[in-house]
Specification:
The chain is an alpha+beta fold. It has helices at residues 23-38, 55-65, 77-86, 143-148, 189-195, 198-209, and strands at residues 2-6, 43-48, 69-72, 89-99, 104-107, 114-115, 120-129, 137-140, 158-169, 174-184. It has a 5-stranded antiparallel sheet, with no helix packed on it. A 3-stranded parallel sheet has the order 1-2-3, with helices on both faces. The protein has a two-stranded antiparallel ribbon with strand order 5-8. Strand 1 (2-6), helix 1 and strand 2 (43-48) form a beta-alpha-beta unit.
């Protein structure tokens, strides 16, 4: 794990962000992020509150390696460092593969990760910790798409979901975990509202607006 602690904008060297163009720095941080991800290294960034550290750029490095961005009060620096160090990496080179019922498709996801008409999502997410959480959205296909596939979704009482997680353990073993679940369907809004996971919805909204 690597922790970058910065007290302001990078203005010297390869990653400098105060020049006329961000392009060289963007390329530099992308290369660093990919190298760290391939090596199973998580990169976190600690910045001082009130300082312009260009988290929009450094955040890409953090996102790629599944680290964390923490804005700290200088008086709480040691405490925040301790919190980051406790979040140990559990697996590296993690690839997730999600499969939906063919009557459904993912939405608000990068098309480069989608296949099978949007019903399959495959992405290498790098490193994960005990606090790592990935969320996704899906929707019903249009009536035209359902008719073309000869799917009568109205008769479905349950919908299958499957996740395949390929990862390298801390011992160096390559592991495949398969999770399959049937989700009950309902037309009753009140039932959906009773069973909704509000925390999960909140985290999804935050991840999409970050």
């Amino acid at each position: 794990q690597v922790i970058i602690c910065t007290d302001g904008l990078a203005n010297v060297g390869l990653g400098a962000l105060d020049g006329p163009s961000d392009a060289p720095a963007q390329e530099f941080y992308t290369k660093v992020a990919n190298a760290a991800k391939e090596s199973g290294v998580s990169v976190s960034v600690v910045t001082i509150k009130g300082e312009g550290a260009r988290v929009d750029v450094l955040g890409k490095l953090v996102e790629t390696t599944n680290g964390a961005v923490t804005r700290v009060d200088p008086t709480q620096l040691s405490k925040d460092f301790g919190t980051i160090l406790k979040d140990e990496i559990l697996a590296t080179n993690v690839e997730i593969e999600l499969h939906l019922h063919k009557g459904l498709k993912f939405r608000n996801e990068d098309p480069q990760y989608l296949s099978n008409g949007g019903s399959t999502y495959i992405r290498n997410v790098g490193n994960v910790t005990a606090l790592t959480e990935f969320t996704f959205e899906y929707e019903l296909r249009s009536p035209e798409e359902l008719a073309k596939e000869k799917i009568n979704i109205e008769k479905a009482k349950t919908i299958p979901f499957q996740a395949l997680v390929n990862f390298t353990s801390t011992k160096g073993d390559r592991v495949l975990r398969i999770i399959t679940q049937q989700q009950r369907t309902t037309k009753e809004q009140s039932q959906s509202e009773q069973e909704v996971n509000v925390r999960l919805l909140g985290n999804r909204c935050m991840s999409k607006t970050a």
